[in-house]
Amino acid sequence: MSDPSAVEEGVDGTVVAYRERLHAPWYVWALATFLTASLGVAYGFYLGDVAGLSTFAVTEALAAWWLLSTAATVVVDDRVLRAGRARLPLRYVGRIAPLDQDQTRDARGRLADPAAYLCTRGWISRSVLVEVDDDRDPHPYWLISSRDGHALARALAPARDAARAAAGPPPAGARDGG
């Protein structure tokens, strides 16, 4: 692999070590279907069966589109960590800590830093806290929902170490993490 520090920022790596889609669980889909069906029944009662079925079909399609389009993807490759639309070059990844349900609740709530980057989903009870080792970055850490935080941490740590080794000494302004 070429020197990652020479690579333009925003370029993804080619070797994916971890990928997870934070999609909504079945009960969210069931609730969306129930709500859109209720709307279809309400419109159908006053405007007729065709209007009711049309309302249901259109609102169900919109709900499905919304649920699919808001399902964030978490990816670790040989250059960056991506969580949702954000990306963090691996050389700036600091300490990595998988959090259980109680720790995640606290990290989202009373212990949260308002400057942190959150890629969380309410229906996923566990997460991974990733410290950012770059003083120029406004986010002290990322909190990322994950159904298997230990697998994400196991993939992220060696990828971070490899990226740091390839990049050489840390850039000026980097925090000490590990």
Would you mind describing this structure in some detail?
The chain has 4 helices and 8 strands. It has 178 residues and is α+β, with helices and mostly antiparallel strands. The strands form 2 sheets. Strands 1-2-3-4 form a 4-stranded antiparallel β-sheet, covered by helices on one side. A 4-stranded mixed β-sheet has the order 5-7-8-6. Helix 1 packs antiparallel against helix 2 (49-69). The model is unreliable at 1-7 (pLDDT under 50).
Computed over alpha carbons, the radius of gyration is: 21 Å
The general outline is elongated
Helix content: 25-40%
N- and C-termini, Cα separation: 23 Å
Strand order of the largest sheet: 1-2-3-4
Structural class: alpha+beta
Number of helical elements: 4
List key phrases describing it.
39% helix, alpha+beta, four-stranded antiparallel beta sheet, elongated, 8 strands
Topology:
Blueprint: E1 16-22, H1 26-47, H2 49-69, E2 72-77, E3 80-83, E4 86-89, E5 93-99, H3 101-108, E6 117-119, E7 127-132, E8 141-145, H4 149-167
Parallel strand pairs: 6-8
Antiparallel strand pairs: 1-2, 2-3, 3-4, 5-7, 7-8
Helix pairs in contact: 1-2
